[in-house]
Design a protein that fits this description.
Pathway: Bacterial outer membrane biogenesis; LPS core biosynthesis. By secondary structure, the chain is of the alpha/beta class. It has helices at about 1-20, 25-30, 35-45, 60-75, 85-95, 115-125, 140-150, 190-200, 210-220, 225-230, 245-255, 275-280, 310-315, 335-340, 355-365, 375-385, 385-400, 405-415, and strands at about 50-55, 80-85, 105-110, 130-135, 155-160, 185, 205, 235-245, 265-270, 285-290, 305, 320-325, 345-350, 365-370. It has 18 helices and 14 strands. The protein starts with a helix and ends with a helix.
């Protein structure tokens, strides 16, 4: 089965340049992998030991960042390598992933070559890592086989196991043997522990989700943005983060029908000029783009659309209420913990199936789900007009984050032992 898998992966690798013709994202996916090995040889310092972190995309990078920075402090003589599978992670962080690390430890940021036997061998021949950390649920059989055969210490952090994964299906049972490559699993929850145990593994602890550690640090830094301060002017402000069209379909009617109730900052998930232009046309109130605003006049607008990346986390600090996108459709809910750490109520769509942290916060009454524009209008009006209700819900969100930190410390305690 592994040989068949490897053959099919090789076929996919050879056909990818064709797919790049039809998709900008696939073009980045292909082009970024053409220079991985030369980048590794150029950027990694000879004779300096390497610690390798791998993240599927931007969300997993953010999840692994507290561990990455803490491990760097614990092993100051090592250099770090960070790989991504997806362009949405690599393209955003290729120049800033190691911003908080000393220059001597900032090794390389690259794509991960596709999981063929030759790629795995060549990659590890160059990198020769002393330790490897995979984040959440990246499982590549050929890489794991090579890591195990070379006896390289390999860990899974913030691990998630679910019954819909290949390991639990007849066609994917063969992959289970490659989980032997992991020295230890640091799992998010009891459900993952039970699932992994059913596969015959006991080398795990339930450490929790390192994203709580990541977001909890955000409140300790300076989140000031002069343009946001000028725009909000101490008025109520709703920050709508990582929104898609399905989210716009319920947010826009509220804004148009409730002018003056609050200021709105909208940060779309995709920075696409055509889609942002369409959003502007649908809004019947004064709207300005971040790229076109004047800080001296920005306060006169009702809606500010953020047509750039990298600002959303700090923008949440200005929110009275946060709306987090993705759960109105099938794309998947985006990060609710970023706004929660600032202690505010959160509204999302109702598609929470794969997001236990959102389900739990909903149970606690710090998060509210909506199915349509009418439900959004009802809960958002209540949150904006009822200060006591808003304050209580916000306190629940903040406490939820604070009470779930500590996963990073458990990883470091294991390494120290």
């Amino acid at each position: 089965m592994r040989r068949l898998y490897s053959f099919l992966t090789s076929v996919v690798e050879r056909s990818l340049p064709v797919t790049g013709v039809f998709s900008d994202k696939m073009r980045l996916f292909v082009r970024g992998r053409t220079a991985v090995f030369s980048t590794l040889m150029k950027d990694l310092e000879d004779r300096k030991p390497v610690i390798w972190f791998h993240a599927a995309s931007l969300g997993e990078y953010e999840q692994g960042l507290p561990v990455m920075e803490s491990v760097a402090q614990q092993y100051p003589k090592h250099q770090l390598l960070l790989t991504f599978f997806s362009p949405s992670g690599y393209e955003v962080k290729k120049n800033s992933a190691f911003a908080n690390l000393p220059d001597r430890q900032a090794g390389a940021v690259t794509y991960l070559p596709l999981d063929t036997p030759s790629n795995a061998r060549d990659f590890l021949d160059i990198v020769q890592p002393e330790m490897v950390f995979f984040i959440k649920y990246e499982f590549w059989p050929n890489y794991l086989k090579e890591l195990k055969s070379r006896k390289i210490r390999t860990f899974l952090i913030s691990g998630v196991f679910r019954e819909n994964q290949a390991f639990f299906k007849p066609f994917g049972k063969w992959m289970t043997q490659y989980l032997d490559a992991f020295e230890h699993f640091f799992l998010q929850d009891n459900a993952s522990a039970e699932a992994l145990q059913s596969l015959g593994f006991s080398n795990f602890i339930i450490s929790g989700d390192t994203r709580f550690d990541r977001v909890s640090h955000q409140i300790e830094v300076d989140n000031t943005l002069d343009f946001a301060t000028a725009f909000c002017e101490d008025q109520l402000c709703v920050v709508c983060g990582s929104t898609w069209k399905e989210d716009d379909d319920i947010i826009v009617p509220f804004i148009n029908q409730n002018k003056g109730t609050a200021k709105f900052i909208i940060a779309p998930h995709e920075i696409n000029s055509d889609k942002i232009s369409l959003l502007q046309k649908r809004l019947q109130v004064k709207t300005v783009l971040y790229s076109e605003m004047d800080i001296n006049t920005v306060a006169s607008y009702d809606v500010l659309i953020i047509d750039t990346i990298g600002l959303l986390t700090r923008l949440y600090s200005y929110a009275t209420v946060a709306y987090v996108g993705g759960a109105m459709g099938t794309t998947g809910l985006h990060n609710i913990l970023e706004p929660a750490t600032f202690g505010m109520p959160i509204i999302t769509g109702s598609n929470l199936e794969k997001f236990p942290e959102a389900k739990r916060l909903q149970q606690l009454a710090g998060l509210f789900t909506v199915k349509d524009a009418s439900e959004l209008s009802t809960i958002l009006k209540k949150l904006l007009m009822d200060k006591n209700f808003r304050t209580q819900s916000g306190m629940i969100s903040g406490h939820y984050v604070n009470s779930n930190t500590g996963a990073t410390r458990k990883v470091l305690e294991y390494l120290e032992k």
